[in-house]
Amino acid sequence: MKRFHARVHVKTALEKLGLFRGEQDNPMVVPICSRSKDVIEPLLKPQWYMRCQEMADQAIKEVAEGRLRIIPEMHVRTWNSWLQDCHDWCISRQLWWGHRIPAYHVSLKGDNSSEFEELDPTEHSSWVVGRTEAEALDQACAKFHRTADKLRLTQDTDVLDTWFSSQLFPFSVFGWPDQTEDFQAYYPGSLLETGHDILFFWVARMVMIGLRLTGKLPFHTVYLHAMVRDAHGKKMSKSLGNAIDPVDVIAGISLDDLQKQLEFGNLDPRELKRARDAQAKDFPKGIPECGTDALRFALCSYTKQGRNINLDILRVQGYRFFCNKLWNATRYALYHCLGSEFKPPIIQSIEDSLCEVRADPLISGTDRWILSRLANAVQQCHEGFERFQFPTATAACFNFWLYELCDVYLEYTKPIVKPGAKPLQEKRANLVRRILYLCLNCGLRLLHPFMPFITEELFQRLPHDDRSKEVAPSLCVAHYPHPREVLALRDVDGVETDFRLVNSVVHRLRGLRSAYHIQTAGQGTASREYLDTQLLAPPPVLNSLVSGGYLTDVVEPMGKSHIKLITSERSQIDTRGCIHATVSASDLLVSSTEDPNLAGTEDAASDNEYGKGEQNSQSQLVADSIPPVLAATCQLFLHLAGQIDVILERQRTEERLKHLNQSIQALYASRSLPEYTSKVPVTKRLADERKMQELEAESESLREMLSSLQDMEEQQNEQQKLQKDINQPSMDVQSTHPLIPILKELTGRTIHNGITDLQATIEYLSSPELMGGLQIAHRAQVKQWLSWSVHLHTLQLRQNSYWKQDAANFRQRIGEYMHSGSTKYLARTKHVTLADLSTALVLVSMPDHGLWIRREQNKHLTQWILRIIESFSDKPHVRDLLLSALGEH
């Protein structure tokens, strides 16, 4: 009975029973067929089912016993959940397309009748199944014991479920059920890569039907990737208007063309307006052209995110910029570093070629470091592919190319490969060119699976020696580097440990120049390209820096500094006009940058299970490769006097520190609220924690800068005061100098009231012989030593903070000068001068002079002082004055 007739009969029955209360219109959604425009009426119909539980149990067993591997393992729980209670599967579909169900309804012709009688279609016995109609007819003849002319078969109009047809894919494409050559050669496969959302609908059914029909698993490994969503974590859908066509990301598209695509959808006006506004907000200038390589690299680096990928076009564009860097760096290396006359090495094997350059006696610490980092990249890529952790491999390639090869090693090679070098330097340049060539060759091979187009183009431009066994016509068939081939290059505890400190020093020097607003050469008359720098570190660290050649090869050219002094003695450092910074090898190990893979959605927080026990970010990849040793440290003293406005920089730093402390207090207050833990999403709490760490690190750096600036300001004030005191010393300064009474006794002169300068007073009281005699060279040396002595005496009298440091340097200089034995007196004269008298008096005024002068290595200075005293043996009064001033020491 049709529904319209049924309604009339129902109403009549209700009226007869006295239950009819009336009728009224009821607004409702009436489903209309898009094709025929008829009202759709759901009806119950007989369906075909497939019993699955037995096959599901076998599929569970295959995973449990390790014959089938599901990656990541968290999806095994989903696999078991679906299959443990697997209901019969309805495989019938009432559609116009698809594979028709191979089931035939039987009609029988009676012995005394010419008409066929249809059997009840709801009875299972009235159906036969066969691969073909002929096979089904044979089964019907045997089942009903009739000849073919007494039977009529009618195939069911239903079609198989799409997933039923899809589950046959692994073997149906090879000619199954026939045992074709393709079927025997290519079935079963090895790896299936697909989305985790169809784990049961397709993957499980392929496994079940494959085991049932062929007795073999269709594949032994299943890799389930994440689902691509928009940048806000929403599912891409045409009905939402947020779907992104990969072709538009590859080729680029304007905002107008992007919005025109929405007009061809099925959005109503309100949804269309909302979709337009969202596109205008997310892509105000459209989608930039990113290229296939950048999109593939971005998606592979995103797979760490777990269940969902929040695709940010800006990140894809960032990898396009990486492609540009890769292109420019390789071309620069080819045409400027290697040059047209470069002869590529004959590569019999990658391992032999790399070990050959590693054993060269001219190799430097930086060369060994880049080879070690190449070995690390090979190892990380291998582990990434082995464990299906593709972000591990992409991060290794990205870091090696951008931060190690381009930022460091290419810059290191520039001064070395300049033409016109000496023979020994040219040999080293050739070694550097070979190392650079091998790094380019291996680096392109490592990157090729992720960026096949640009790496292939660059690989074809590399020069090759036809005699090499490793020459390949294309990267597609070239040998991929293996960790065992580069194992000998890895030096984690050696050059990599040393270079972490070197890299930190370079970054800190650059950061200090930027933080203190130091102009580069050409921007100001007082600026210099290279700034004087002193380095203080323990002896083992200094030995590593010097023996590896890191200071001259890397720190000075890349840090734009001139290493004036390296020492392990704090007393030898001249801190005047310097800012101070402590550098650790661990400064650059863990980046505070938020991992873009795990930002932006609530779902990202729950996806942490995906990476449980694994590396969770690019910075973690770096940190995990660090040996558990104490990080090397050193101290930098950068001379900025005359380069910066100390007062202005102090004011800037104080203002920035004030705002920074306000931000820290505000963030701390928000995190201290009682409802913070319960109401704030996990991702927001993690972001706040990272932000707090960044703010505190910057605050500590600013406090260190402020302390250095305050010290410099104090030093400037003291220096100005000292200069004023030296230029106009008071009479008490003159009268307290121990040389004044000695000179008075020698020459009989008295202090001139019109002379206020201490050095001028001493010279006025002296005789020409004491001033060095008639030779200009001797007189110049006397003046120089006298000037130093007067300066130190004034510092000591004023209790200036520079006294001890300058005195130590002065004493070391005297010891070295007199140790040569080529002279009896300081001015290289044959008699005592003011240089000897003033210098000796300064030496004995030092607090620790008694202990210092008794050392074995200072015997020659004791003899020098005795010669000074004995030279005045004919002048008893002068000798007594000297003995009172010098003898007691």
Automatic annotation (TrEMBL):
Keywords: Aminoacyl-tRNA synthetase, ATP-binding, Coiled coil, Cytoplasm, Ligase, Nucleotide-binding, Protein biosynthesis
Entry EC number(s): 6.1.1.9
Any one biological process term the GO annotation gives: valyl-tRNA aminoacylation
CDD domains the UniProt entry points to: Anticodon_Ia_Val
Keyword Electron transport: no
One Pfam family here: Anticodon_1
Domain Methionyl/Valyl/Leucyl/Isoleucyl-tRNA synthetase anticodon-binding: 367-520
InterPro entries in the cross-refs: aa-tRNA-synth_Ia, Anticodon_Ia_Val, Glutathione-S-Trfase_C_sf, M/V/L/I-tRNA-synth_anticd-bd, Rossmann-like_a/b/a_fold, tRNAsynth_Ia_anticodon-bd, Val-tRNA_synth_C_sf, Valyl-tRNA_ligase
Keyword Ligase: yes
Region (Disordered): 593-619
GO cellular component, one term: cytosol
GO MF annotation list: ATP binding; valine-tRNA ligase activity
Residue ranges of domain Aminoacyl-tRNA synthetase class Ia in the record: 35-312
Coiled coil regions in record: 650-725
Family, similarity comment: Belongs to the class-I aminoacyl-tRNA synthetase family.
Protein name in UniProt: valine--tRNA ligase
The species this protein was found in: Fasciolopsis buskii
